[in-house]
């Protein structure tokens, strides 16, 4: 199924530097009360509840108008009302046809799937969208920690660093990898470099506070922990909008 740019924006994972997206300029109807979801051979009615609406307004920068518009778009592009992990992976694959983004997509999906049910519902989607498009730097750093904290125990090991870095390398073409500095042109080297920046011994762990402070103190860590090809991503977004 073709995915629109509204859905795609949130699924690439947040860039951890300051950036801006175009403002939301979509139609809104105050009379929207129910939207029909068609899926699995059945038709059912689903409303954006006042409770969810108020919670999202409290935790994001979005207005009633914007949230109702996102809701309509979400259901139009995801008729079941949920994004499965497989759909999420497919979206990533369409953006990186010459690489293998599956592992990284799975990790990003895990970090957004707040209730760990294997799908993203509208609320989880909006939280992800807010984080990627307008979230504060601290929120993005907290997300980055959650991405690297594979088992969710509140600390990061060197093995967890290696796992995420390896998934990032899978999305970098072989030719691009050749242009990386000698001391970070393999997943192992980059993971070692990150670990050294934090001043940790082999079996030490990094807490969330140490992780965030370390990145704020050293922009080299920020560069090393994230996957960032903004130009290519923007070009593909433009292609999908045409």
List key phrases describing it:
single chain, 242 residues, mainly alpha, two-stranded antiparallel sheet, globular, disordered N terminus
Task: Tally the helices.
Answer: 13
- Order of strands, main sheet, comes to 1-2
Assembly type of the shown chains? single chain
SS-derived structural category: mainly alpha
Q: Kindly report how far apart the N and C termini lie.
A: 16 Å
The chain-level mean pLDDT equals 77
> Which geometry do the CA atoms define?
globular
| Helix fraction by DSSP (H/I, runs of at least 4) | 55-70%
Largest sheet: 2 strands, antiparallel
User: Strand content of the residues, in percent?
Assistant: 5-15%
Number of strands: 6
Instruction: Output the radius of gyration.
Output: 19 Å
Topology, element by element:
Elements: H1 5-11, E1 35-39, E2 42-46, H2 50-59, H3 64-77, E3 83-84, H4 85-95, H5 102-112, E4 119-120, H6 122-134, H7 137-148, E5 155-156, H8 158-169, H9 174-178, H10 187-197, E6 206-207, H11 208-217, H12 219-225, H13 230-241
Antiparallel strand pairs: 1-2, 3-4, 5-6
